[in-house]
Design a protein that fits this description.
This protein has 101 residues and is α+β, with helices and mostly antiparallel strands. The protein has a single domain, classed as 2-Layer Sandwich (TolA/TonB C-terminal domain). The protein is 34% helix and 25% strand. A 3-stranded antiparallel sheet has the order 2-1-3, covered by helices on one side. α2 runs antiparallel to α3. The longest helix has 12 residues. The model has no long low-confidence stretch (mean pLDDT 90).
Length: 101
């Protein structure tokens, strides 16, 4: 497996602010602070780009369609190193989101 949890975390970490912006823009207008997690699922293609990004129910506690749509948009724009085996690599990754004050 050319991708480890750490290598995936590093790529997602570089785009954490984009994901955080989705959270802030979607949930900022609510009266109470909502914190939780999303489980992202996507496939890293042989060229390193992402396909089939989605938020899955398992492990997801933030249920907001606009938030999910925004996060999926960020995920679809990610580029990973090209896998040396030139194969698709499915990934599931938890994202913990909370308000920044």
């Amino acid at each position: 497996m050319p991708f480890t949890p750490l290598s995936i975390k590093n790529i997602l970490g570089a785009h954490h602010q984009d994901i955080q912006n989705c959270y802030e823009e979607t949930l900022a207008g609510r009266g109470k602070v909502v914190e939780g997690s999303l489980t992202a699922a996507f496939t890293i293609k042989p060229d390193g780009t992402v396909k089939d990004a989605k938020v899955v129910k398992k492990g997801t506690t933030l249920h907001d369609a606009k938030l999910h749509e925004c996060v999926v948009s960020v995920l679809n724009g990610l580029v990973f190193p090209r896998p040396p085996d030139h194969r698709d690599h499915p990934v599931e990754y938890p994202l913990n989101l909370k308000a920044i004050r």
